[in-house]
Amino acid sequence: MAKLGCPIYVCVFIFFHLLQLFSYGVGDVLEVPPFNINQRSLLQYLSLGDIKIDLPALYIFGDSCVDDGNNNFLPQSAVANYLPFGIDFDGKPTGRATNATLDGFQYPPPILGMSEADRKITRTGVNYASGSSGILSENGRSMHMNVLNFFQQVDLFENTTLKDLKSSFSNTESFTEYLSKSVFFIHIASNDLGLTYETTTPKDSPDKYTEMIVEELFKQLQRLYKLDARKFLVNNVSPLGCQPFNINIKNHITSCVEEVNEHYIYIYNKLLSNSLTKWQSTLSGSKFVLEDLYKIFQDVYASYGVKDVNTSCCLDRNGARILPCAQNVAPCEDRKSRVFFDPFHPSESMHFLWARRLLKDSSVCSPINLTQSMQA
User: Fold this and answer.
1) Rounded distance, CA 364 to CA 293, Å?
2) Among the four 83, 85, 250, 348, which has the fewest Cβ within 10 Å?
3) CB within 8 A of 29, min separation 6: which ones?
């Protein structure tokens, strides 16, 4: 068994289920273990037995790709707490916008579902993510939704978890060390570069708009740093032009809407990469890992034996594939061979691939991969 500085499920969960994967080379066929695999079997499947990791906690910030239930507690918000979401998790929706979670594992709980007593004793991490949120406060407003933007998520970490949990440590030094070894996972900006940008009038140039987003992102990362966070895993933005939503509503002559991918997403990802390098040198003692989610999706589109890379598995209430899943309408049967479960969110199979490459594949992580970051 792996020697871990925390309950093993925390390290195994790692970022959406990160619990799974060693690097595949492009061209491999995606093989997903059973969704009901137990903890011991999963560790053997991942060959994690000899890896030593000191990871006290995982703190998650972001949007619907990592929200595991916070929006369930917000009125008029985007939710995934009904079938067919969770259909492969014993038919029990949890609030995650996909078809399954692995059986037998406990995930960092959503902050809005925790009591004050829970916040004082939960040392393994908390989830602050909110579906349809982003870096900018405008996210969600265009669809009249009540969501937690990144600023508000950091507020919750500072004003609830940080204050409540500190009292459970014997002294300030031990609490500071605990935070410095924990991983702060940031998956955000897709909504800023998607619906928010498209509904903003008048529009800034892509360069000016992406600069503003990155500046706002840094402000919140600085806040977390001042609160003793030191290890950051930051995702770039995937090729949104390949989402079923964009494919079904926009004109395109290739398999994806390249206009979406090649303009502001490309600009944002390049600026983010350059900025993370600068921020690490600016914030003494910090460690930033950039996960190239864009490349991971590109590789899947190129190969991996996936049968369908750009069609939503579930239908919306109009029988199309441009809105979230209609409630209690059966999704496709071949869910293990799909990249997308709904028009916006990856299937659980894609999460497996995503997480496996993140753990060990330095071609999609820089300057080091996640395992190396957790061991540092």
Assistant:
1) 7
2) 250
3) 304, 305
Q: Which two tokens stand for residue 100?
A: 């399954």
Overall pTM > 0.85: yes
- Name which of 154, 240, 227, 161 is nearest 194 in CA terms: 240
What is the domain partition of the chain in residue ranges?
8-375
- Residue ranges of the chain whose pLDDT lies below 70: 1-53, 101-106, 140-144, 201, 302-306
Structure tokens at 11: 């390290």
Which pLDDT score, from 0 to 100, does residue 33 have? 58
Q: Return the active site residues.
A: 64, 342, 345
Element (H, E) at 234: strand 231-235
Element (H, E) at 298: helix 293-302
Fold of 8-375: Rossmann fold (3.40.50)
Say if residues 192 and 140 touch (Cβ distance below 8 Å): no
Please state, in angstroms and rounded to a whole number, the distance separating the CA atoms of residues 223 and 19. 28
User: Rounded CA gap, 41 and 33, in Å?
Assistant: 10
What span, in angstroms and rounded, lies between the C-alpha atoms of 56 and 122? 11
Residue 277 CB contacts under 8 Å (≥ 6 apart), including other chains: 288
Task: Establish how many alpha carbons lie within 13 A of residue 354's alpha carbon, considering only the half-sphere containing its beta carbon.
Answer: 26
Cβ burial, residue 82 (10 Å; 0-12/13-18/19+): middle
Residue 115 class from Cβ within 10 Å (0-12 exposed, 13-18 middle, 19+ buried)? exposed
CB atoms within 10 A of CB 117: 9
Which value, to the nearest 10 degrees, does the dihedral of the CA atoms of residues 71, 337, 25, 296 take?
-30
Our CA angle for 33, 29, 92, nearest 5°, is 35
- Whole-Å CA distances, 298 to 118, 123, 193, 256: 40, 36, 18, 11
Concatenate the DSSP letters of all residues of 300-359 into one string.
HHH-TT-SBSSS-SS--TTSSSSSSPPTT----S-GGGBSBSSSSSB-HHHHHHHHHHHH
User: Do the Cβ atoms of 2 and 53 come closer than 8 Å?
Assistant: yes
